[in-house]
């Protein structure tokens, strides 16, 4: 059968075809039918012919007689990344034994037929290879800020949208609730809205909160989720009432991007963490905010803290690790320490040479990284407080 179907396919130059990461819409039943045929093949060569035929059908839409890409036939369609699809087919074709090839066919079939997700996100583990956009390494080199849509680098001290984007995709499901206790100009809520998650953000300064509201409301809301920016001090904010207004009791992801102590002074307000009188008082203020916000985080869910270190009187102050240590004592286990690069702020960029000279004279290094400390709400090994 396969020999017959292969007739006339010579126009398909496989080596010239480079699958790209575009999304294809395919007819699920048709592709499963073809997979079933592959499963029934009795020799490696006929199975390889079958794979070639399938590839040909996927590429040459015009000669699509079997309706693989005919999405109108029964409406049972699925979206698949083209690269994933062709990589899977290639792996089947490259197998050295019929047994191995069939193992890959079965895995491919699962990827098409079943969705397997965990309790905390929507990642289909049967098609995990498709998620090339999700970072799993602990070192993030992000050279370009995502400036799509309403995202702007205009608010001094905001984080790159890739940070909340990664956290939301990895640690929430569509329809979940995200809380950002230092929402600034709303980067987290713009991302949560884009990804179909509800978001609550707290910001101390009303003028900044207003900016955030403006940005978030100009972002399309195609999933019809709720995004609310409340003005207030995160250490005493009434998260329960804020959530109850929307018929909600808890959140499924907590994000915090506090001031890195006094590196950038955000306001003159004494409740602002950038006005803490010492590192100790910064930590106390942070603890209060963490205790208050984490009371509405579901058990087993994640908390991402984005923070950097600072220099004071020629000494490196490991603000990130000091804060991490405090949080690890407060009902959280540490899941990851991600190191992320950052480029100089505009001010420092203009003085690059001067800073390099200063570093050489002073024997110090110029900050080029910050941290994302990732915690899970459950008691960890560093938590020595009595139960
Ligand atoms: C590093 S910025 C956050 C930027 C944010 N991630 C963004 O992308 O826009 C810290 C923010 O925390 C706010 N802030 C400081 N102390 C606060 C407090 N006690 N409660 C709520 N917000 C506070 C500051 O006004 C500032 O906007």
Question: Any key phrases for this structure?
Answer:
387 residues, alpha/beta, Rossmann fold, two-stranded antiparallel sheet, binds S-adenosylmethionine
How would you sum up this structure in a few lines?
The chain has 2 domains: 2-130, no CATH class; 139-377, 3-Layer(aba) Sandwich (Rossmann fold), CATH 3.40.50.150. The chain has helices at 2-6, 28-40, 44-59, 82-94, 98-113, 162-171, 187-194, 206-218, 239-244, 279-294, 319-328, 346-350, 352-362, and strands at 23-27, 77-81, 139-140, 177-180, 198-203, 227-231, 251-256, 297-307, 310-312, 315-317, 332-341, 369-377.
Amino- and carboxy-terminal Cα gap: 69 Å
CATH class of the largest domain: Alpha Beta
- Main beta-sheet strand count, sense and barrel state: 8 strands, mixed
> How many helices does DSSP assign?
13
Give an account of the 3D structure.
Strand 4, helix 7 and strand 5 (198-203) form a beta-alpha-beta unit. 37% of the residues lie in helices and 18% in strands. Helix 3 (44-59) packs antiparallel against helix 4 (82-94) and helix 6 packs across helix 7 (187-194). It has 387 residues and is α/β, with parallel strands linked by helices. S-adenosylmethionine (SAM) is lined by residues 155, 157-159, 182, 184-185, 187, 202-205, 208, 233-235, 257-259, 266-267, 271-273. Residues 155, 157-159, 182, 184-185, 187, 202-205, 208, 233-235, 257-259, 266-267, 271-273 line the site of S-adenosylmethionine.
Structural topology:
Blueprint: H1 2-6, E1 23-27, H2 28-40, H3 44-59, E2 77-81, H4 82-94, H5 98-113, E3 139-140, H6 162-171, E4 177-180, H7 187-194, E5 198-203, H8 206-218, E6 227-231, H9 239-244, E7 251-256, H10 279-294, E8 297-307, E9 310-312, E10 315-317, H11 319-328, E11 332-341, H12 346-350, H13 352-362, E12 369-377
Parallel strand pairs: 3-11, 4-5, 4-7, 5-6, 7-8
Antiparallel strand pairs: 1-2, 8-12, 9-10, 11-12
């Amino acid at each position: 059968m396969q020999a017959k179907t292969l007739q006339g396919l010579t126009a398909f130059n496989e080596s010239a075809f480079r699958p790209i990461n575009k999304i294809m819409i395919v007819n699920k039943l048709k592709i499963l039918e073809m997979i079933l045929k592959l499963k029934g093949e009795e020799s490696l060569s006929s199975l390889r012919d079958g794979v070639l035929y399938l590839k040909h059908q996927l590429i040459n839409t015009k000669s699509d007689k079997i309706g693989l890409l005919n999405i109108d036939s029964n409406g049972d369609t699925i979206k698949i990344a083209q690269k994933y699809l062709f990589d899977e087919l290639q792996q089947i074709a490259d197998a050295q034994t019929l047994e191995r090839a069939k193992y890959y066919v079965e895995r491919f079939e699962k990827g098409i037929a079943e969705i397997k997700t965990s309790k905390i996100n929507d990642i289909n583990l049967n098609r995990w290879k498709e998620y090339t956009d999700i970072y799993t390494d602990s070192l993030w080199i992000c050279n370009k800020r995502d400036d799509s849509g309403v995202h702007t680098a205009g608010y001094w001290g905001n984080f790159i949208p890739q940070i909340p984007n990664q956290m939301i995709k990895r640690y929430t499901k569509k329809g979940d609730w995200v809380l950002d206790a230092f929402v600034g100009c709303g980067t987290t809520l713009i991302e949560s809205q884009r990804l179909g998650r509800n978001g609550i953000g707290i910001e101390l300064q009303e003028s900044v909160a207003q900016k955030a509201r403006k940005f978030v409301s100009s972002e399309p809301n195609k999933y019809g989720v709720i995004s609310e920016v409340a003005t207030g001090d995160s250490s005493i904010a009434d998260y329960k009432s804020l959530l109850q207004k929307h018929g909600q009791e808890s959140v499924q992801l907590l994000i915090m991007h506090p001031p890195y102590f006094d590196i950038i002074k955000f306001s003159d307000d004494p409740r602002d963490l950038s006005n803490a009188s010492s590192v100790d008082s910064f930590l106390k203020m942070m603890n209060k905010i963490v205790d208050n916000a984490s009371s509405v985080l579901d058990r087993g869910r994640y908390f991402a803290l984005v923070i950097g270190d600072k220099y004071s009187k020629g000494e490196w102050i490991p603000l990130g690790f000091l804060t991490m240590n405090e949080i690890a004592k407060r009902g959280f286990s540490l899941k990851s320490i991600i190191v992320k690069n950052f480029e100089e702020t505009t001010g420092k960029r203009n003085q690059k040479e001067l800073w390099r000279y200063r570093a050489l004279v002073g024997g110090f290094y110029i900050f080029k990284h910050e941290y994302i400390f990732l915690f899970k709400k459950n008691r960890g090994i560093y938590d020595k407080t009595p139960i």
